[in-house]
Design brief:
Shape: globular
Oligomer: single chain
Number of strands: 12
Structural class: alpha+beta
Number of domains: 2
Strand content: 25-35%
CATH topology of the largest domain: Aminopeptidase
Order of helices and strands: HHEEEHEEHEHEHHEEEHEHE
Distance between the termini: 39 Å
CATH class of the largest domain: Alpha Beta
Largest sheet: 12 strands, mixed
Length: 308
């Protein structure tokens, strides 16, 4: 990265930390969510300068998604973040940024814009309800709430993360559990895409860029070719101490595969010095509560607006 790009990253990261008090994003996270987004378009990163300072910024992406019937593909716009320095809020900067982004998205053929998880590369599932001002801001500009999402929090100091007994049990059934490696990219990626979809494939393979690799897999070596992978779990694909995604092949459920992979990932985070972990965009709440004593934590509202 050249000096000019480094300055731009540093200024944007500092603005986000000043504006979004719940999320102290690192420069690495901002780089990953903006310039390394698979659909990054520089025209959709809009900024506002005031007194030679970065006073505000908004960033959007366009994802190609199937319609409700699973047939026709359409272009959906997402607001990944909007931030205005607290010193310059309530001066129309946010309104102007959003209007400019909406205009550019419309010019690119987008019919709907969402303020929700822009999977596979996303910062949040939606607007955290504690960012009350942001929620009211979008409502006042024609956005409507269409769904909710929740993160769960795990206390890594007290959560039961031992896997010795489970790993022994799985080994007796011919199942090997280990950290994912670069050589697993094709087999694991193909299996995840086929079983769970492209978004989870992208997010999981992104962890191969971490040191150590932030994913574990379960294998059944005696299975027919192409069917050896039976489970995976990953963390830090988007946010440094956020867990997910995770999936187990239907034929291998009820064996403890998911429980073991989950605990291995969370143990990694504990050994790195984290005191807690977020289980992102939680699905099976009861499973996580039972397995690692996770509790409901962050709540998000998902918003959208038609551009027609």
């Amino acid at each position: 990265m050249d000096v000019k790009a480094e300055v731009k990253l540093s200024r944007l990261s500092a603005l986000l930390r000043r504006s979004l008090w719940l999320d102290m994003l690192t420069e690495a996270e901002v780089m990953g969510q903006v310039w390394q987004d698979p659909d990054f378009d520089p025209a959709l990163l809009v900024t506002h300068e005031r007194d030679e300072e970065l006073a505000g910024a908004i960033f959007g992406v366009i994802r190609r998604e199937k319609d409700a019937t699973g047939g026709t593909e359409r272009r959906v716009g997402y607001v990944k973040f909007i931030a205005v320095d607290p010193r310059y809020q309530r001066q129309g900067i946010g309104t102007g940024l959003l209007a400019r982004l909406e205009e550019r998205l419309a010019e690119k053929g987008v019919e709907e814009i969402r303020v929700s998880g822009s999977a596979p590369c996303y910062l949040w599932p939606g607007v955290d309800v504690r960012y009350t001002g942001a929620y009211c801001f979008f409502l006042a500009r024609g956005y409507t709430r269409y769904s909710d999402a929740v993160n769960m929090r795990v206390d890594l100091a007290t959560a039961p993360l031992d896997t010795v007994a489970d790993e022994k049990h799985l080994a007796e059934k011919g199942i090997v559990v280990r950290r994912m490696e670069e050589g697993d990219r094709e087999a694991v990626g193909t299996w995840i895409a086929r079983t769970f979809g492209e978004n989870w494939r992208w997010e999981t393979l992104a962890t191969l860029n971490r040191q150590p690799v932030a994913a574990f897999i379960a294998l059944q070596p005696d299975s027919p070719p192409g069917e050896e992978v039976i489970g995976f779990a990953a963390y830090a694909g988007n946010r440094r101490n956020w867990f997910g995604p995770m999936g187990t092949d239907p034929r291998a459920r009820k064996l403890g595969v998911g429980r073991t992979l989950l605990r291995l990932c969370l143990r990694d985070l504990r050994e790195m010095g984290y005191t807690d972990a977020q289980i992102a965009w939680t699905g099976p709440v009861a499973f996580y509560a039972r397995t690692v004593e996770a509790r409901m934590d962050r709540v998000f509202y998902l918003l959208r607006r038609s551009l027609h």
